[in-house]
Amino acid sequence: MPAGGPKTVLDMEKQLGLDTSAIDLSKTFTNDYAQKANKDAGTKVTTTPAGSDG
Question: Where in the sequence is the domain holding 1, given as residue range(s)?
Answer without folding.
Answer: 1-54
